Amino acid sequence: MTTTSSINQLFPQPLWQWFSQICAIPHPSKHEAALSAHIQSWAKERGLSVVVDHVGNLIIRKPATAGMEDRKTVVIQAHLDMVPQKNADKVHDFVTDPIQPWIDGDWVKATGTTLGSDNGIGMSSALAILGSDDIRHGPLEVLLTVDEEAGMTGAFGLQAGMLDAEILINTDSEQEGEIYMGCAGGVDAEISMPVQWQAAQAGHLAFTLSLSGLKGGHSGVNIHLGRGNANKLLARFLAGHALELGLALSELKGGSLRNAIPREAQCSFTIPADKADLLQQRVTQYQALLQAELAKVEPTLKLSITPSATATTPLRTMQAKAQKVLINLINSCPNGVIRMSDEIIGVTESSLNVGVISTHDDSVSIVCMVRSLIDSGRENIESTLQSLSDLAGASIVFTGCYPGWKPDTSSPVMAIVKNTYESIYHKEPTIMVIHAGLECGLFKKHYPDLDMVSIGPTIRFPHGPDEMVNITTVGQFWTLLLAVLERIPAKAA
Description:
This protein has 493 residues and is an alpha+beta fold. The chain has helices at 4-8, 13-24, 33-45, 117-130, 148-151, 153-157, 230-245, 276-293, 320-332, 375-392, 412-425, 440-446, 471-486, and strands at 49-52, 58-62, 74-79, 101-104, 107-110, 140-145, 167-170, 178-183, 185-194, 197-199, 205-212, 248-254, 265-271, 302-307, 316-318, 336-340, 348-359, 363-372, 395-402, 430-434, 451-454, 459-460, 468-470.
C-alpha cells in the first residue's frame, strides 16, 4: 500500500501535501465542520483574513505579491465536501474514517471508496497558493463552499457583498485540456408512492434479490456512457416476472445519492413454495440477458438470490394492486440521456437519474436528479415526471432548483486561460459546456458581472468507488493555474 509520504512527494508537492491532509479529515456532504476548522486555524496562523458566512462557506483573503497590487482581484473557488460512496464489502464510516489514497501508476485512487479528488484537488490547489511565498498573483480570495454535492447549500447561501473579486476560477472540472464556460442546471424530484400492506401469506418462502457490481458514477458527467442503473434494472426484472412468480414485495431499495448513478439495489419478497425453482431459473436467465446487453460497460454485474432465514421472514407484504402500480411506475420512469444538445455537439442537453429508492411505513420514495442546459428541457422532464406520478396516484415534490451557467463566448478570463494554455502546451484546449451542476450559475445571481471560467485535472469515475485522478494532469492543471494568475490584467482605471 502506498504511504502518505509517497503521495506527498508527487508534483506539485504543496498541492499533494494538502490533499493528504484533506483525505485524513472526514468531510462528506453536511459533515465538513472538522475540515473547515482545520483550514481556518491554519489560515489564521498565517495571518490571512478568514470569514465564515451564515451557511458555513469559507472566504480567505491574501494580499497581492509585490508589484501586482494593481491587478484585478481573483477568487479561486472549490467545495469542501465530497461524495460518500463505497463498495458493498468495504467497511468504512465516512463521518469518522479517513480516506486511504494510493498510487497506481499515473493515478491516485482510494481503497474501496470515493477518493474525494472531486473537489479535493481543486481545494488543495487554492490552499497551496494561499500558503506559498513565491507564487506571483494579484489580490486573491479563496471561496470554499459547503454541501455542494448534496444540494449546493453553500452556493445558494452566498450573499451579495461577500466577494470583492472581478474574476472567478472554478476548480471543479474533471478533464485536463478542457476549459468550461457553462454548465447544466438541475432540480431534485421526489416521488412518494403510497402503498398498502397485508400480512405475509403463510407457507410462502422469503427471498432477497440483490443487484450489484455496477460502475455507477456521476449522474451528469457519466450519464451518457450507457452504464446500468441498478434501480431501473431491478424494476425491469420485477415488471417481467412478479406476476408469474406470485411475488409479494416486503421491501425495495437501491442507490444512496440522487446525483450518483446507483450501483446496487435489492428487493425482499415472498413467493409460493412451488415457485422457488422458477425464481432461480428466471434470475439466472435475467443475469445472462444483462451480461449480454451490458458486457462492455458493466463486466462485473451480478445478480444474487438469497433465501431468508425463518427469523427474518417478513411479517407484511405489499397489497397486489399497490405493488403493481409501484413496479410499473419505476419501470416506466425515464432514465439516462433524454436529449443531446443541438448547440454543442457531443454534450448532453437533458438527463434524468433515478437515484434512490427507499421503502417506508406507508410509501415508497423515488428520488431523481434532473439536469438540463436549458430551462425548457428541465421543465419538460418535470412535466413528464408529474404526469407519471399523477397516473400512478403518487405525489411528487421538486426542490433545490438551480440555474445553469449560461456560456459567454466573449469572456475575457476564458480568453486568458485559452491563450495561456496554448503558450504552455502548444495546442488548443477544448472550450466546453459540462453536463454537471457547477456552482457558477448560482454565483451569477448576486454577482452578475463576475467573469468566470472552470478548469481542473483529469478525474475518472467521480461519485463512485472507482474514482481516480491522473497525477500528470494535476501537475498540468497547477502549472496552468499559476500562469493564469500571473496574466490577470490590471484593474480598470
